[in-house]
């Protein structure tokens, strides 16, 4: 069984403020005035930030709404009448009052608040100085990740660098550029402190490689190709490597392997019950709920001979490499599902829901290689670009790319990102980032100048007392 560091019982740290989107009070909460006294308090508070990574908001419906079905590779799934509200995300008809828009917003702010509790309060605790510095660095990297989610989906949002000393959370939105600069600062500072490895009992804590890897991806979104290239080279130099077996990579035996740069430990232990990431997407009526399934467009995107096609798409009637026979003949259950979240029956922990042990891979080394390739190509270094692109293709049993011009290599890298990272919640933001969204998603209802961002939820607009402006088109 995997070791796991999330040993605390679930609790929530709360703050005093007037805005619902940053003050979500839950039963069983502990007031901060009675907390943050000991080293154990510091560890529990930091672990509570990690706990959000496996939460419903980050692994269940809300994240899949905004990053999944908005792309062309994922559709709602399940039977037509089950959770039909998800169709609004397939068709870009969601509004400022939509519960999904609000749910993802609130979830990310809860997580930011947990990180800020650590960043503000842990430095004042009399405890081991090295551990204290490291825990703050962990919280900064995690805060950067949550802000990266927010800025990609909502654009500019308020920056809270710790808990406001005056308790005032009423702030106008910062610009997207300011938010990205804040993320860069957090990740840069975290990378200077975080270790590259941890003991087995602490698997899942963020590392130097994780901070630098996320930073390289942030620079790619900022179109700062030189820094994306330099930073991804730092990650490459740390010794990561591709798992030679694409199937093994996504099974429990492949967790925290050589390709893992930023991964969420979702073991069914410590009273948390794992996550619902696999259950939500598992084969309906056999393993899970059957939501967020591959589209025919994704199926057709793979080249002939690409082993990732059948290792990404789980089909009715097939027998998996691990010996499970996937059911067939139920028209209400669909016929294709996400194989990357599949947990073999023989390995499932029945003490929790199906697939609760399935880790969430946030950042893999394959992504780093493709970030490096894209940045290198934009800088005119086509040789490095094709070398790293071909490393990813080789693992998929494909021949080297035939692309040679800068424009063709760019297109080849974008295509490789699609098939390599399929079903991993990268497609929609990649389409927006690369300017392809209007062309690719237009037939699905995407409107240029509007749907690059989600709306700020209506209640957040109202509670801001006039400080928030709404995103264009809403």
Describe the structure.
By secondary structure, the chain is mostly helical. It has a domain of 91 residues. 43% of the residues lie in helices and 6% in strands. The chain has 19 helices and eight strands. Helix 6 runs antiparallel to helix 7 and helix 8 runs parallel beside helix 14. The longest helix has 26 residues. The radius of gyration is 21 Å and the shape is globular. The N terminus is likely disordered.
Largest sheet descriptor: 2 strands, parallel
Total helical elements = 19
Strand order of the largest sheet: 1-2
Q: What is the helix content?
A: 40-55%
Q: How much β-strand is present in the residues?
A: 5-15%
Q: Give the CA-based shape.
A: globular
SSE arrangement, N to C: EEHHHEHHHHHHHEHEHHEEEHHHHHH
What is the rounded distance between the termini?
Answer: 48 Å
Q: Which radius of gyration do the C-alpha atoms yield?
A: 21 Å
Query: Which structural class best describes the helix and strand composition?
Result: mainly alpha
């Amino acid at each position: 069984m995997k070791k796991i560091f999330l040993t605390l019982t679930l609790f929530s740290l709360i703050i005093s403020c007037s805005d619902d989107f940053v003050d979500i009070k839950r039963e069983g909460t502990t007031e901060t005035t009675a907390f943050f006294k000991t080293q154990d308090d510091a560890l529990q508070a930091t672990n509570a930030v990690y706990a959000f990574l496996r939460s419903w908001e980050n692994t269940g419906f809300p994240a899949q709404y905004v990053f999944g079905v908005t792309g062309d590779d994922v559709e709602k799934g399940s039977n037509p009448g089950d959770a039909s509200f998800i169709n609004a995300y397939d068709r870009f008809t969601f509004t400022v009052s939509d519960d999904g828009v609000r749910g993802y917003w609130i979830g990310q702010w809860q997580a930011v608040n947990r990180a800020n509790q650590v960043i503000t309060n842990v430095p004042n605790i009399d405890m081991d100085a090295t551990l204290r510095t490291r825990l703050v660095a962990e919280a900064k990297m995690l805060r950067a990740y949550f802000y990266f989610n927010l800025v990609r989906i909502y654009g500019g949002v308020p920056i809270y660098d710790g808990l406001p000393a005056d308790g005032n959370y009423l702030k106008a939105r910062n610009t997207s550029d300011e938010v990205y600069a804040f993320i860069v600062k957090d990740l840069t500072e975290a990378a200077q402190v975080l270790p590259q490895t941890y003991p087995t009992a602490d698997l899942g804590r963020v590392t130097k490689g994780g901070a630098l890897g996320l930073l390289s991806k942030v620079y790619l979104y900022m179109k700062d190709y030189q820094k994306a290239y330099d930073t991804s080279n730092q990650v490459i130099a740390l010794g990561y490597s591709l798992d030679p077996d694409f199937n093994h990579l996504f099974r429990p035996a492949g967790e925290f392997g050589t390709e893992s740069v930023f991964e969420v430990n979702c073991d069914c232990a410590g009273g948390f019950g794992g996550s619902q990431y696999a259950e939500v997407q598992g084969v309906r009526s056999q393993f899970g709920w059957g939501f967020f399934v591959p589209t025919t467009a994704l199926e057709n995107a793979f080249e002939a001979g690409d082993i990732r096609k059948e290792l990404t798409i789980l089909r009715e009637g097939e027998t998996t490499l691990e010996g499970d026979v996937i059911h067939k003949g139920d028209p209400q259950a669909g016929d294709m599902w996400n194989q990357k979240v599949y947990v073999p029956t023989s390995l499932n922990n029945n003490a929790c829901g199906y697939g609760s042990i399935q880790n969430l891979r946030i950042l893999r080394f394959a992504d780093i290689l493709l970030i490096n390739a894209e940045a290198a190509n934009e800088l005119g270094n086509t040789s490095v670009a094709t070398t790293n692109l071909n490393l990813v293709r080789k693992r998929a049993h494909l021949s080297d790319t035939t692309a040679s011009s800068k424009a063709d290599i760019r297109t080849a890298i974008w295509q490789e990102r699609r098939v390599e990272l399929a079903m991993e919640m990268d497609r929609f933001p990649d389409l927006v980032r690369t300017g392809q969204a209007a062309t690719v998603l237009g037939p699905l209802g995407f409107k240029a100048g509007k749907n690059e961002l989600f709306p700020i939820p209506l209640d957040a607009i109202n509670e801001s007392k006039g400080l928030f402006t709404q995103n264009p088109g809403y």
